[in-house]
Amino acid sequence: MKNQQVVVIGSLNYDLLLKQKRLPQKGETFMADSLIQGPGGKGANQAVQCAKLGLRTSMIGNVGEDRFGDALIGSLQASGTNVDFISKKGTTGMGIVNVLPDGDYHSTLLQGANYLITKEDIDRSLDVINSCQYILLQQEIPSEIVDYIIEKTRDIECQIVLNNAPAREINKISLSAINILVVNETEAEFMSGCQINSIKTAHKVAESLVSKVKDFVILTLGSLGVVIATKEETFYTPANKVEAIDATGAGDSFIGAFVFCLLEGYNLKKAAKLATLVSSITVSRSGGSESFPTLSELKEFTLLQKF
């Protein structure tokens, strides 16, 4: 019997979100309209969304020995995430995010404690890693640690989800062991060398990437929706039309919801539709993971929309 449904290994950042009308020009000082601060980091965000949807979730990673680290651990605990495998080292990673009126954002990261994670940290967590059904990875920790995790879990019965964000080169051996690769347009262009300027080209790029992984590729297209390529078919799911307020964490919300759907036994098309709905709820609210919907909220939305 699997003890944990999901183990997330990755980054925990404390985010400062500046809402502003535009980005400053070079050499210009520009006033922001407001500041929102709170928990973030792709790893922590994905863990929170999984936990908010009722999945048994553990987070593995590092925070700093400071008040930001304490706040991040507290927010994960509040979501229901198991924090027993989070260590305190150095200073907490930070995210400085500029949020524009259309909900789009620009983000700068301070690596901090995220880059102090070691192979020994992974080895100490192998019991919980080996007990899970899904492992969620991102690229805000050192690449050698991501490779090590993939190597150590190659022979266990779990599904590995890699969100190649921020985009970087992945060695062929590691990539071939990934069950589900998740990328946005920028990351997919980086990996394929092909520009994405339409749904049609997104199909082609997703199809070119799926041959490199075990099972399937998810290519998220922001407000346009998502393209999914398996070995047998490629399909497109449009995004829900909402008034976007803040897109921070929307991709992480989508991933957490998609894994929830897979564990619920949904087929890929239904999973894409429901995960797209979850991310649309997220972008219609301000903030990071605190904007992610809970299972009860999702049920309310799906009833209203007759999902």
Question: Any overview of this molecule?
Answer:
The structure is a single chain. By secondary structure, the protein is α/β, with parallel strands linked by helices. 36% of the residues lie in helices and 25% in strands. It is built from eleven helices and 13 strands. The protein has helices at 42-52, 67-79, 119-124, 126-130, 143-152, 172-176, 185-192, 199-210, 250-263, 268-283, 295-305, and strands at residues 4-9, 13-19, 34-40, 57-63, 82-88, 93-99, 105-110, 132-137, 159-163, 180-184, 216-220, 225-229, 234-238. The strands form two sheets. A nine-stranded mixed beta sheet has the order 5-4-1-8-9-10-11-12-13, with helices on both faces. A four-stranded mixed beta sheet has the order 3-2-6-7. α1 (42-52) packs across α9 (250-263) and α9 (250-263) packs antiparallel against α10. It is globular, with a radius of gyration of 18 Å.
Sheet with most strands: 9 strands, mixed
What would the average pLDDT be, to the nearest integer?
92
From the alpha-carbon coordinates, what is the Rg to the nearest angstrom? 18 Å
In what order do the strands lie side by side in the largest sheet? 5-4-1-8-9-10-11-12-13
Q: State the low-pLDDT regions, or none.
A: none
Number of helices: 11
Category by helix and strand content: alpha/beta
* Mass-distribution shape: globular
What is the CA-CA span between the terminal residues?
Answer: 31 Å
Strand content: 25-35%
Number of strands: 13
The helix/strand order is: EEEHEHEEEHHEHEHEHHEEEHHH
